[in-house]
Structure formats: structure tokens, C-alpha cells
Automatic annotation (TrEMBL):
<protein>
    <submittedName>
        <fullName>Extracellular solute-binding protein</fullName>
    </submittedName>
</protein>
<feature type="signal peptide">
    <location>
        <begin position="1"/>
        <end position="26"/>
    </location>
</feature>
<dbReference type="InterPro" id="IPR006059">
    <property type="entry name" value="SBP"/>
</dbReference>
<dbReference type="GO" id="GO:0042597">
    <property type="term" value="C:periplasmic space"/>
</dbReference>
<keyword id="KW-0574">Periplasm</keyword>
<keyword id="KW-0732">Signal</keyword>
<dbReference type="InterPro" id="IPR050490">
    <property type="entry name" value="Bact_solute-bd_prot1"/>
</dbReference>
<comment type="similarity">
    <text>Belongs to the bacterial solute-binding protein 1 family.</text>
</comment>
<keyword id="KW-0813">Transport</keyword>
<feature type="region of interest" description="Disordered">
    <location>
        <begin position="214"/>
        <end position="234"/>
    </location>
</feature>
<dbReference type="Pfam" id="PF01547">
    <property type="entry name" value="SBP_bac_1"/>
</dbReference>
Length: 234
């Protein structure tokens, strides 16, 4: 049986089941709901009204430790407060290796936080992830800036070759935007674009020349973790 419970994180539902708990623990909230006007508490109340998960427990596994662990737990505390569920987060500095071991052994968490889309796509292709569903993809498309781009980033081929939405991006970091190899440009006779229109035109030219204009991650053989080299590479 495959089940998933969605929480706002770069979350991918994995093969697993939810276990019952006797009672949800009191959440340690940084801000009491409704007391700070900087936040949209209506969305919290709407989510609370629509999701009663009292007595359920969710395992969440990711790469965050120390201060980062405290931060993600400050987020899951609101999920617990709204739903009545209990979230058990565990972090590891060997996340990339451990998540592969756990999924292959059938002992994966309910939800995992992937720092890189490449590894998630690889596990999805082996049938080890559970799709989040079209409703979640539609919500992201409607509520995220450039929503379709985020949906595309979280959409991978399943074991049978069909494409499905697996990843819910929670945070993103700007690293170096776009970088390129000057020698490659010189050899091909390309000029460095100065505007977005010129960048699009150059990308189309590179495709016409039979090459790939950009990449968002290195292949596993080049970098086992599948992380972006520094953001975008041309």
C-alpha cells in the first residue's frame, strides 16, 4: 500500500504507511495563529478546517540538521497544529545514500525532502515514489509565480514511462543564475547575450546546431548527488 500526506516542503511521497498515535503533541509555535498581522492567517484557518488528520503520524526524512532542523520543525509545528497529526522529522548528512537504501528496502519515510531533482527523478523512474496528483500540480500552477515551470521541475517519468507530478518545491536558492564556458562559445562562434531576448535566440541557435543549450543538473555519473553545478550551466 502506498500512501502520502502532503506538507509544504520539497516533498516527495514515498512508499509507506501512516501509523496511528494516541494524541497529537502540543505544537511549539513561533507565532500564535492570528496574533501577527504580517502573516495570512486565513489560509492557515482554511487549511485547518479542510484537513483533520487527528491521530495520524507522518515520518519526514531530509538533509537538514542543527539550525536547519530547527527551522523545518518550526514549519511542521504549524502543520501539526492545523491538522492534529504528528510529524516525526529525522535528518542525515548522508541523505542521498540513505534514501536510496531505504526506498529499495521498503522502509522509506512517508515524505522525503530532496535537495536535488536528479535523484528524485531517478527514484521515480524505478517506481519508488508516489505521485502527488494532478490537484496538487494544479494548485502549484495557480499559486506559484511561473507555476508551470515549478510543476515541470517536479514532473518525472514513472516506472512504466508515464510522466507524473512527484515533487512539491518548498524553497529555492539562487546560486549563480547562468554561467558558461568561454572556450565553447569561442569555438562555436557564439556571442554572449546581453538581454533575455538574445539569450532565447542563442538557445534556439544552439538547438538548431544540434546541441543542448542549458542544464539544471549534472548527470549522476558526473555528480552522484545530482545537484545543480552552480544553478544553471550553458
Amino acid at each position: 500500500m502506498k500512501t502520502s500526506m502532503l506538507i509544504g516542503a520539497l516533498a516527495l511521497a514515498l512508499a509507506g504507511t501512516s501509523a496511528a498515535v494516541t494524541a497529537a503533541q502540543a505544537a511549539d509555535l513561533k507565532f500564535a495563529p492570528g496574533e501577527d498581522a504580517r502573516f495570512n492567517w486565513q489560509s492557515f484557518e482554511d487549511f485547518k478546517a479542510a484537513n483533520d488528520l487527528s491521530g495520524q503520524e507522518m515520518s519526514l526524512f531530509g538533509p537538514w540538521l542543527s539550525a536547519d532542523k530547527d527551522l523545518i520543525e518550526s514549519v511542521t509545528a504549524y502543520f501539526e497544529e492545523a491538522t492534529g497529526a504528528k510529524v516525526n522529522y529525522s535528518g542525515s548528512d548522508s541523505f542521498e545514500q540513505q534514501i536510496v537504501i531505504d526506498t529499495q528496502a521498503g522502509s522509506a519515510p512517508n515524505v522525503a525532502v530532496f535537495p536535488q531533482p536528479g535523484l528524485a527523478a531517478d527514484l521515480a523512474s524505478k517506481g519508488l515514489l508516489v505521485p502527488l496528483g494532478s490537484d496538487t500540480a494544479d494548485w502549484m500552477k495557480d499559486n506559484y509565480a511561473a507555476g508551470q515551470s515549478w510543476v515541470d521541475l517536479g514532473t518525472y517519468e514513472n516506472q512504466d514511462g508515464t510522466r507524473a507530478f512527484f515533487a512539491f518545491p518548498y524553497k529555492a536558492d539562487v546560486k549563480s543564475l547562468v554561467w558558461y564556458v568561454p572556450e565553447n562559445f569561442e569555438d562555436a562562434g557564439y556571442q554572449v547575450p546581453q538581454t533575455m531576448e538574445e539569450l532565447k535566440a542563442l538557445s534556439e541557435q544552439i538547438v538548431a546546431d544540434g546541441e543542448t543549450p542549458g542544464a539544471s543538473a549534472l548527470a549522476p555519473a558526473a555528480r552522484p548527488a545530482g545537484l545543480p553545478p552552480t544553478g544553471w550551466r550553458t
